[in-house]
Structure formats: structure tokens, C-alpha cells
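Priority: medium. Attachment 1 of 2:
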């Protein structure tokens, strides 16, 4: 592999675009001292761009140094002292970048084979589940008569029939087929995702909806009248079917409403977040609450509270949509913001020990990683985690 190809591979890792095969290739390459030296050069360039030094993160630097020295002492005793110092120097400088670019922290474990000797995660109580797996597709469908259908384990096929409308599961998403229905059906269905689940569906009008974990949508079996109105909690991404005669309206628990004709947008309306954020990707939407109304253009975000309605004119759309694309994007996210995401996706409870600072992170991680793998990456900053038997995470300074 040429140096340019190797750098491109590392760049893809940093941005979270590496495939599983490329990650394995990178791990294999880093067994070769020549590639470790190339990686050191790349990290030096990152540090120059960030204008950071190892003194900015002394505790992180010290921890990684100790871990690498231990790894070298245990399994690479034949190396010379100069070689050891060279690797430790590279890791010392790397520690700074890893503190700033969280995605690189996982790469650090490749260098000492994910040694867990220095990680508190290795000192979990007896009986602790060995792995807390990532969330997956699944949801609960509540029908108009109050009956429920759990969609986690169902295969493709007919879920139910409501007055001639077929409710189908196709390729992991719920679809309504009204082709053979001449009956106007009154009533509402709802779809809800517990913690640790996400789901996608197609509403009766053809609108596509993706639900994040711990979210729900309530919608009519048939859209009648002059508009198409749904109610949501949590987070959802919409690709609205165009119908200029029937505006599509999304209502949230706080009274914020989003009105569209046909467009792509994301709504984050979790109860434990400070604001309800509506981010527009395509088209145009009108957001309103008791404080007023605003019209968004693509790339803008409306932020709604009980006392205000404001517009953020330049938003990182890729970060907003990371959840739908299978990633955590922690750029400029505080510790508590990060942990709220992990609570929903891994179905855990989080507590904070006294003295924990609200650190800020930067970087991306794959949402398919286990909880332990994500926490190991976060531990590259000045924070520690303890997992209890009750799926509870205690955050420690």
C-alpha cells in the first residue's frame, strides 16, 4: 500500500467511513512498524492543524503512555529502548489527537491489541454481562382496537388487515396497502420504539418515516380531510409524499408544529433535551409554536422551547442525520449529551458520580459497536465508566 493510500485509509477511519473489511485491514497494517511510523507522521500533521500539545491533556497522555509501555514490556521485550521511546512518543502525541478526535481512540487499542489491563471496564463485578450489544430494528405497532403487534421477530408478510387495508412488513419496514380498499376507515394506529430499537415505515399516504430509539408516531389509518396530521415523540426523520392539496403536519408534545407539502426533515423532540430541533434537508417547512412561526430553508434548524422559537442558519446536517446513517457523531457534544444518546440506544441507565465535569467530545463512532467498545473510546478523555449488573453506567471523574 502506498503512503497516499494508507493516509486515505486512516482519513476514512477518522471520518467514520471505514468498512468492516477496511478496519480489519488497518488493524493488520499496524502490526508493521513501517505503517506505525507513517501513522505517527499523520498524527503529527493532525496536531499541527489543531495547534494542540500533549500538555493540554496530561492525564490522557500519561494513561496511554503507561498502557503502551506495559504492552511493549509484556510482548515486545526484544525491541530496543530507542524503538520503545519512538512508539511511546508517537502515542504521547496521538493521545492529544485522540482527546480531540474521539474516533481515533478506538485505533489506539489496535496498537496494544485492545489490552484491558488499564481499563476500569476490565474490572467489572462478577456476573456482569460480558457484552451490551447495540440496538437493532424493532418496534411495537398498536392498532385502532388497542391490540399490539411486536415487530422485532416478524418476517416479511401480512401483519394484519384493517377494513380492507393490508398492513405488511416488507424488507424490515411497515407498509400500508390500500389498493383493494374502498372503505373509509376512522381511527389511529401508533408505532413506538423502545430504548434499544429503531424502525422505518411507510405511512398510508406514502410518506416514509424513520424512528430513532425511544420514539413514537401516531397517525390515522387513512388520511381524510384537508390535511395529513401525525403526532410524534422522540426523534423521527420524514420524507414526505408530495400532495399540494393536503399539507403534512407534524405535532409534538410541547405544541410545536411543522407544516410541509413535500420535503425531507428531521425532528428531535425528546423530553430530556433542552430544545425541540427541526432540521430541514430538502424543500421548505413552516415551524410554529405559541411564540410565533418561521419558515426554514435547507440547511437551517428551528429550535423551539416553551418561551422561544429561533433559527440556527448553519447546521451540521450530517451530524443531525448520523443516527439514521448508523453512526454516533459526537462533534462538539457534551458528556451528558453523549450519554443521553447511549441511554436510548443501549437501553441503559446513567448516573454521575460527584466531581464529573461536562467534557466535550469530537469524533464519530459506529452505532453497531457494543457499549463496552464505545465506552473504551470515550475513556481516552478524562472520564471513567463502571457497568453494574442492572445495566446501569456510573460515570466517574
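Attachment 2 of 2:
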Amino acid at each position: 500500500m502506498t503512503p497516499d493510500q494508507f493516509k486515505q485509509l486512516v482519513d476514512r477511519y477518522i471520518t467514520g467511513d471505514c468498512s468492516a473489511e477496511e478496519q480489519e485491514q488497518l488493524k493488520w497494517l499496524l502490526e508493521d512498524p513501517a505503517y506505525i511510523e507513517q501513522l505517527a507522521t499523520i498524527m503529527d500533521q493532525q496536531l499541527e492543524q489543531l495547534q494542540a500539545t500533549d500538555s493540554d491533556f496530561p492525564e490522557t497522555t500519561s494513561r496511554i503512555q503507561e498502557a503502551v509501555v506495559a504492552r511493549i514490556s509484556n510482548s515486545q521485550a526484544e525491541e530496543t529502548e530507542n524503538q520503545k521511546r519512538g512508539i511511546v512518543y508517537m502515542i504521547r502525541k496521538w493521545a492529544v489527537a485522540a482527546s480531540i478526535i474521539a474516533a481515533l481512540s478506538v485505533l489506539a487499542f489496535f496498537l496494544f491489541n485492545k489490552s484491558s489491563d488499564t481499563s476500569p471496564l476490565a474490572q467489572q463485578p462478577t456476573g456482569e454481562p460480558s457484552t451490551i450489544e447495540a440496538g437493532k430494528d424493532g418496534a411495537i405497532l398498536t392498532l385502532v382496537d388497542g391490540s399490539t403487534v411486536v415487530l422485532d421477530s416478524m418476517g416479511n408478510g401480512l401483519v394484519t388487515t384493517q377494513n380492507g387495508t393490508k398492513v405488511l412488513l416488507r424488507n424490515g419496514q411497515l407498509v400500508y396497502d390500500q389498493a383493494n380498499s374502498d372503505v373509509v376507515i376512522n381511527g389511529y394506529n401508533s408505532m413506538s420504539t423502545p430504548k434499544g430499537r429503531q424502525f422505518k415505515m411507510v405511512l398510508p399516504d406514502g410518506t416514509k418515516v424513520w424512528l430513532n430509539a425511544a420514539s413514537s408516531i401516531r397517525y390515522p389509518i387513512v388520511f381524510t380531510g384537508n390535511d395529513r396530521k401525525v403526532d410524534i415523540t422522540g426523534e423521527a426523520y420524514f420524507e414526505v409524499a408530495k400532495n399540494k392539496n393536503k399539507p403534512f403536519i407534524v405535532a409534538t408534545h410541547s405544541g410545536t408544529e411543522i407544516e410541509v407539502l413535500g420535503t425531507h426533515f428531521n425532528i428531535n423532540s425528546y423530553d430530556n433535551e433542552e430544545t425541540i430541533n427541526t432540521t430541514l434537508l430538502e424543500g421548505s417547512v413552516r415551524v410554529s409554536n405559541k411564540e410565533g412561526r418561521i419558515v426554514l430553508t435547507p440547511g437551517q434548524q428551528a429550535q423551539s422551547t416553551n418561551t422561544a422559537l429561533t433559527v440556527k442558519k448553519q447546521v451540521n446536517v450530517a451530524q443531525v442525520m448520523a443516527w439514521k446513517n448508523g453512526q454516533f457523531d459526537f462533534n462538539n457534544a457534551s458528556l451528558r449529551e453523549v450519554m443521553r444518546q447511549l441511554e436510548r440506544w443501549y437501553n441503559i441507565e446513567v448516573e454521575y458520580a460527584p466531581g464529573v465535569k461536562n467534557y466535550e467530545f469530537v469524533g464519530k463512532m459506529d452505532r453497531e459497536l457494543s457499549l463496552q467498545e464505545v465506552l473504551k473510546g470515550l475513556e481516552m478523555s478524562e472520564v471513567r465508566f463502571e457497568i453494574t449488573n442492572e445495566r446501569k453506567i456510573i460515570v466517574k471523574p
